[in-house]
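ZP: hey, is the adenosine-5'-diphosphate complex queued? I don't see it on the tracker
AM: it wasn't, my bad. submitting now with these inputs:
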Amino acid sequence: MKILFCASEAWPWAKSGGLADVAHALPKALAKSAEVTLMLPWYRFMQVDLSALERVAHVTLSFGGEDYAVTYYRLAREGVETLFVYSELLSEREHLYGPPSSAYGDNDLRFALFSRAIVAFAKRERYDILHLNDWHTALAALFATEAKITAKTLFTIHNLAFQGLFSRERLELLGIDPKYFQMEVLEFYGKINFLKAGIAFADGVTTVSPTYAKEILTPEFGCGLEGFLQKHRAKLRGILNGIDTDFFDPKHDDMLPCRLKKDLSIFKQCNQETTGIKKSDLPLFIFIGRMTAQKGIDLLASLCDDLAKLPLNFAFLGDGEEGIMRQLEAVDRKYANIRYFSGYDEVLSHRLYAAADFLVMPSRFEPCGLNQMIAMRYGTLPVVHKTGGLADTVHNIDDKEAVCGKGIVFEEATAGQLLEAIRSALALWHERERLERCNRFNMACDFSFAKSAEAYLALYRSLL
Ligand code: ADP
């Protein structure tokens, strides 16, 4: 089976969140049983020298009254062929989607161009499956239908909150036939909605956990698309993400100054010493991620005065909403036991996962979430709100069933329940043996992409 897997970002070249992890780990897992090509844009900030790569094709794409020169470059890595798409408009940028907290004004055109580049290549190379991911590549499902390519298309929604909404005035420039600008297809409250193209035109649609697949059919989680998704629900499925367990491996992770030998507490202590968090006998709680309402960071930030009084250390890592970042900076200055690291720092994130005792994820919604799986792999107990992929991957430690994984799970995303859950974690901290048993249980769980890859392969087969 020949698969063209397309995404706007992939680790290690470009990453803004979980999509990049998945676009790296899933093709790698699929490559064990299929022929996989990963296609992604080349961006100026990448550490990839195009002149050193094989140039495999060059095309001119004409649409919206303009001609766009597009070149494809090949790189083989970890059994996966990667094709970088270069086109000046798409590629010559300092950032993926725009500088922090803003978006480039021509992202619609950039990713419409990328989507056309995908289809142009798929047309000449004859793939069985075109696997598209998120709004950046969603238009490719429409263009593939128009181009009558033989490949079946699968569209994966990694986060329904990001739909790619743009002004209708841009239709002509994007070269999209106005006949598609209607509610059944691309129109969404007077705007063009790229994500709808993926849902409407792909042969199959998935999202990244079974629970989220159900949740998005409801007004609470559907982001206005619940009715549209209901219409297409026959082709919608949830397949749980995994993580790259070679990359996130406490025994071999070369981003860690101290790798796991036998003793979990030595491993944690030794890594904590290199994070800049002062040495202490108190448990370390961490939050890593985008500082947005989705992640419930505002709930945590509102609790900082309470947290400061508890016998714990708390470290935050991430960027996001200005107000929250300022609040955390102030808290960092005020309290010795709370630290805030701003920015995106892969190395520090690994050290924090390794050093911490508890990872807190009060997400209001969570399509899948990778942090909790990474944390469990490093012997760090997750404290999570029961939603989406968190509900599928973390089960209350009091549950008797031996289902992977275990953590502290709370029902409602409120500051009150979150504080209660953190207090429960503190109580558990004193039951050292039980906590260690849970962590060891979680570390033995299989969070790899192997199972997900099997589910995707079965789905691809069913589409063919
Ligand atoms: P998202 O909704 O942002 O995609 P996921 O849980 O799916 O969230 O994936 C987040 C990924 O990004 C994880 O690998 C996490 O460790 C990483 N990550 C998030 N924020 C940061 C940060 N500030 N520094 C380093 N890694 C981060």
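AM: back. Residues 365 and 387 are 6 Å apart (CA to CA).
ZP: great, adding it to the tracker
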